[in-house]
Amino acid sequence: MEFIAQNMAPIMFASLILFMLIGYPVAFSLAANGLMFFFIGVLLTPYSGGAINLAWPLLYALPDNFYGSRVMSNDTLLAIPFFTFMGIVLERSGMAEDLLDTIGQLFGPIRGGLAYAVIFVGALLAATTGVVAASVIAMGLISLPIMLRYGYDRRLASGVIAASGTLAQIIPPSLVLIVLADQLGRSVGDMYAGALIPGLVLTGLYAFYILIVSIFRPKMMPALPLEARTLGHGVMSLLVALVATVAISYAAYRYLAPAHGDNADILGATAGVIVIYIVAITDRRLNIHMMSRLAQQVVIVLIPPLALIFLVLGTIFLGIATPTEGGAMGAVGALAMAAAKGRLSLDVIKQALASTTRLSSFVLFILIGARVFSLTFYGVNGQIWVEHLLTSLPGGEVGFLIGVNILVFFLAFFLDFFELAFIIVPLLAPAADKLGIDLIWFGVLLGVNMQTSFMHPPFGFALFYLRSVAARVPYLDRLTGKQVAPVTTGQIYWGAVPFVLIQVIMIGLTISFPQMVMRYKGTATDAGTIDYKVPEMPSLSPLSAPQGGSAPANGGNGPAAPGTPDLSQPPSFGDAPPAKPATPTPDLSQPPSFN
């Protein structure tokens, strides 16, 4: 009994892992474990030697935990339904299809052009939707048949689609970053700012891998044939449009700088983009042929999602809106974009609301279960056990980061990122804070690591999403009429392996170069470069000193000039008063006399 009572925390944690491995839902596993071990802990309190701090009245704290600021009244978590709704509406509006078609035509003439297009569109969808399922399913439905039609290797095509979809995990406005910020007690805006550079670097690593493969294995990713480039040529026209946009933006910046200061660059860029967008729309409607078809399509298709990204992320980074308000504006912008394309209907709104409610309820139930579990776990001093376990790892801060990331990497084989965020992160955060690790850096590092939970064979959710839309049996291509072989599950799994390795490399880069994340704090000020200026005090020299008089050498008291008062003596105010007679000094050797 004493052994069980004094080791309740590790037994409780192992029991939770066992429940989830058996297959019980995570939310109910958390709540059931919490309540079961609460009852056991109360009974074993006399045998614990003070290691257990549980009593029946402590259960009264659960309603406050549910309805307090951690769950039902948590304004931070309110951003989750907004961003989910925005992503689903955009996915239903056909934005992904337009982007993939246009960017595929732009990169089509080069080897691996479709793969580059998938990566670029995956990053754009990540910055607008923030939902992995929507990105993977949309690109799997649209891009995979085209890549197979033109001879792309099945493993590479599957891997690049699944990996690009998971960029929604780390590129803001990611849902996992919102949850991590809430669990770490940090600002969502800071978490977004810290994750931006690592997300872009990871996108660049994906593109670099495609470049390497296209050089050494060109047959795995051929260029689009000439007959498939329906938009024709026109890259030079696009470059001219880009140069014109930059010129207009710079002119607007110079004009607005005196009045708007630091915001002039953003306003100038906005003016340039609006002008080129209006020119492209006018050119297409009136058939002026000022721009090529390719340039028109790129401008018209790219600018609306970029404007939505600015509406959401730009307002958050500029401090104009909170993440919750940014999500609300994004949802309104998504509805406006769908309506502008003529694809907004009552059915689309119903589907988006149903999916948003389902995901939000899923998150809420896990969070409620986590509160029940944590009430008991903290009551048996579980946080102290975890802190001692992690802070005693060899290597100090680096050893802690490596050990934690290995733990999260292997748990990601079995747990979803929401489950990792609600179960593991609250246990790791106190130890990281005690070691002096910046929690924003720690959160971004865990976000990059949790991204692998979508790519791990055999339980990666991104692989499941792709498997649900990839062909399982041979089919006839609707354009060429040729029979196309299906994509096997093994090909999807093997295609994900190189991208999982790239994500592991990204974890190492984030640990080695923390400034990628720490830039969220702004530019640090070097104390050695600060110039202290002490204001000059008014001169104490007499105002009647003669002009051209020289000061005594070496600070000596030279002869005073005529008319100059002698400051070494007390001031005189006319005739001196008569001197008072000196008071006789009493003789203290004799007793005092009172006569």
From TrEMBL:
<feature type="region of interest" description="Disordered">
    <location>
        <begin position="541"/>
        <end position="595"/>
    </location>
</feature>
<feature type="transmembrane region" description="Helical">
    <location>
        <begin position="439"/>
        <end position="466"/>
    </location>
</feature>
<feature type="domain" description="TRAP C4-dicarboxylate transport system permease DctM subunit">
    <location>
        <begin position="13"/>
        <end position="516"/>
    </location>
</feature>
<protein>
    <submittedName>
        <fullName>TRAP dicarboxylate transporter, DctM subunit</fullName>
    </submittedName>
</protein>
<keyword id="KW-1133">Transmembrane helix</keyword>
<comment type="function">
    <text>Part of the tripartite ATP-independent periplasmic (TRAP) transport system.</text>
</comment>
<feature type="transmembrane region" description="Helical">
    <location>
        <begin position="192"/>
        <end position="216"/>
    </location>
</feature>
<feature type="transmembrane region" description="Helical">
    <location>
        <begin position="37"/>
        <end position="59"/>
    </location>
</feature>
<keyword id="KW-0997">Cell inner membrane</keyword>
<feature type="transmembrane region" description="Helical">
    <location>
        <begin position="12"/>
        <end position="31"/>
    </location>
</feature>
<feature type="transmembrane region" description="Helical">
    <location>
        <begin position="492"/>
        <end position="513"/>
    </location>
</feature>
<keyword id="KW-1003">Cell membrane</keyword>
<feature type="transmembrane region" description="Helical">
    <location>
        <begin position="228"/>
        <end position="252"/>
    </location>
</feature>
<dbReference type="GO" id="GO:0022857">
    <property type="term" value="F:transmembrane transporter activity"/>
</dbReference>
<feature type="compositionally biased region" description="Low complexity">
    <location>
        <begin position="544"/>
        <end position="565"/>
    </location>
</feature>
<dbReference type="InterPro" id="IPR004681">
    <property type="entry name" value="TRAP_DctM"/>
</dbReference>
<dbReference type="Pfam" id="PF06808">
    <property type="entry name" value="DctM"/>
</dbReference>
<feature type="transmembrane region" description="Helical">
    <location>
        <begin position="114"/>
        <end position="144"/>
    </location>
</feature>
<feature type="transmembrane region" description="Helical">
    <location>
        <begin position="358"/>
        <end position="380"/>
    </location>
</feature>
<keyword id="KW-0812">Transmembrane</keyword>
<feature type="transmembrane region" description="Helical">
    <location>
        <begin position="71"/>
        <end position="90"/>
    </location>
</feature>
<keyword id="KW-0813">Transport</keyword>
<dbReference type="InterPro" id="IPR010656">
    <property type="entry name" value="DctM"/>
</dbReference>
<feature type="transmembrane region" description="Helical">
    <location>
        <begin position="264"/>
        <end position="282"/>
    </location>
</feature>
<feature type="transmembrane region" description="Helical">
    <location>
        <begin position="294"/>
        <end position="321"/>
    </location>
</feature>
<feature type="transmembrane region" description="Helical">
    <location>
        <begin position="156"/>
        <end position="180"/>
    </location>
</feature>
<keyword id="KW-0472">Membrane</keyword>
<feature type="transmembrane region" description="Helical">
    <location>
        <begin position="327"/>
        <end position="346"/>
    </location>
</feature>
<feature type="transmembrane region" description="Helical">
    <location>
        <begin position="400"/>
        <end position="427"/>
    </location>
</feature>
<dbReference type="GO" id="GO:0005886">
    <property type="term" value="C:plasma membrane"/>
</dbReference>
